[in-house]
Write the structure tokens for this entry.
Amino acid sequence: MVIKVFLASSSGSTAIKKKQQDVVGFLEALKVDYTQLDIACNEENRMWMRQNVPVEKKPANGIPLPPQIFNEESYCGDYETFFDAKEDNMVYDFLRLPPPPGSKQAREEEGEGQEEEDLQSQEEEELRQLEEEEEAEVQEEEEAE
């Protein structure tokens, strides 16, 4: 699975440039395999991006601005949804990628199953403590006799 980030290499907007740098920098920091596709120099990339952003995700003027992020052919989102996923530590879900072992997101997913295991272990520990207390009481009673 390849993450595709549609960018404009010659954008005059500093806001767009900053958003593009933020997305690319974060993907690099996570060591996510991605490809940059320039919509400024390549008409095919621009047309593909515009055609594949879902209608409900397009702005009022109908022309989505970069960066736009896809997992292969599947639309992930724009900068705002990427930023929200980043804030919620859900970037791998956003990208439709499995989180790497040891990552915070993987630990959180493991934690859901871990909570049940922890609860069961806690119950077993409480039961063991009760049994020990009962044994201690029985021994005290026997020693008192």
